[in-house]
Fold this sequence. Notes:
about 300 residues, alpha/beta, TIM Barrel, 8 strands, globular
Amino acid sequence: MKLGHFFSLSWFGIKTILFKQKKPILGTIILTDHCNLSCKHCAVNNINNEMYSYESIVKEMKNFYKEGIRILFFCGGETLLWEDNGKDIKDLIIKAREIGFYIVNVVTNGTITLDIKEADIIFLSLDGLKDTHNLIRGDTYDTIMKNLNEANNSNICVYLAVNKLNYKEIEKVGKLSKNHPNINSISFNLHTPYKGTEYLALTKGEKREVIGKIKKMIKDNIPVFNLNSTLDNYLENNWKRPCNQCIVSEDNKRYVCGRCVEEEGLCEECGYLFAVEFSLLFNGNIKVIIDVLKTYLKYI
């Protein structure tokens, strides 16, 4: 990250804390809901079968930038399936750079390619070792590992959604992430029980077990891209939501924090650890501020 960008983001944080402002700094644009998989925990794929146009996406990027957003995520469906008149994800990243975004990230299931050096971080969905991952996502593990082995110029963060089927394996995936030369970090979320996926939700006891394992991995120098200082807050469920500093846009419809805000009661079951982190960060939690400097800057 450029030094000027770091100071700009820091100033945003200071103003947010001091003046209780609710302006967003992180924006996510959904490019398409098309997906080549049907993962057990997913509730947002292949619903409208829409591939949003390059022009509409660029227009929303420009709107985001004018509103002060400087961190941009591209998501799906499967993000890398997106194309429009010869344009693909790399064209969008390049355009985002031209507009002025500081950090541009991509979320993908890894079945297409992971050699996207244009992105700051590629968040790669991997939901366990081979048998467990394939149980959740279909027979894709070998394809993902092949693509991972060929991605020599990309900053890849494994993105693991912890649920009833895979929570026993997260330490093994953590070790894989530490030992693989093309993986830079691993980030955990806990399953948010969207309608139809409630059976995958962890019990309170299982959540405590998972958080304990994540803490141990951090202590054991596994490259965990989560903040140790916020994990107990997640368990205690005592953080403010929705997080006003994050917005999601799909087909020019906006959601504060995430799409789950429109489903009654789901916000209280949120498992997105980054939302906990941003909420506590922008409420001025000193431990979290220090942890951000130690952790986020290491992996971006």
